[in-house]
Design brief:
Elements lengths: L2 H7 L13 H11 L11 E6 L2 H8 L13 E7 L4 H17 L3 E6 L3 H8 L6 E9 L16 H4 L6
Bound molecules: flavin mononucleotide.
Flavin mononucleotide binds next to strand 3.
Length: 162
């Protein structure tokens, strides 16, 4: 898939089929994620890949809008050494665009109870855990976007000066 086409078409998908995603595909997605840029190239992220249904259900209870984690084919928990939301956003975007390119849909879930979530994963308490990605083959078409789906470029782009 062309990069621009992937960027234009990617949507958040929260319902997944029961079809498992082959590990080879998961590894390709993770490999794209590890190539993301980061401040001073610190690459502060660690991924925990979860496929066990019981664990997915527990994680789904760690966010207010995280129910989709319970039904994912797999979840990528993104843990970072420092609270660098920008770096987490970068790696999430790479993971999600690579997944989309490979036919795998995804949706972020914000983790509201990181301490509980880290305990579930057995992850070190000193790491930050704000974002988990639910992934799987889509079982729904994405919701119709509100008009245009995104703000028009003219609403957000200021040339030379505000
Ligand atoms: C930082 C961040 C946190 C998000 N948290 C959640 C969440 O907790 N639950 C959820 O269902 N979607 C979450 N999303 C997904 C957004 O709702 C989604 O990306 C947005 O609505 C655009 O969807 P679209 O690309 O299909 O238009 C989050 C997205 C971002 C970037």
């Amino acid at each position: 898939m062309e990069t621009l086409h992937a960027i234009r078409t990617k949507r958040a998908v929260r319902k997944y089929s029961e079809q498992a995603v082959p590990e080879e595909i998961i590894r390709k997605i993770l490999d794209a994620g590890r190539r993301a840029q980061s401040s001073k190239n610190t690459q502060p992220w660690q991924f925990v890949i979860v496929r066990e249904r019981a664990t997915l259900k527990q994680l789904a209870e760690c966010g207010r809008f995280a129910a989709h984690l319970a039904h994912a084919a797999f979840v990528i928990a993104i843990l970072t050494a420092r609270e660098w939301a920008f770096d987490t956003g970068q790696v999430a975007a790479y993971l999600q665009l690579a997944a989309w390119d490979l036919g795998v849909s995804s949706c972020i879930a914000s983790i509201y109870e990181p301490a509980r979530a880290k305990k579930i994963l057995g992850a070190p308490d000193e790491l930050f855990f704000e974002i988990a990605l639910a992934c799987g083959y889509a079982a729904e078409a994405p919701h119709a976007p509100k008009i245009g789906g995104r703000k028009k470029l003219a609403e957000i782009a200021h040339w030379e000066k505000w």
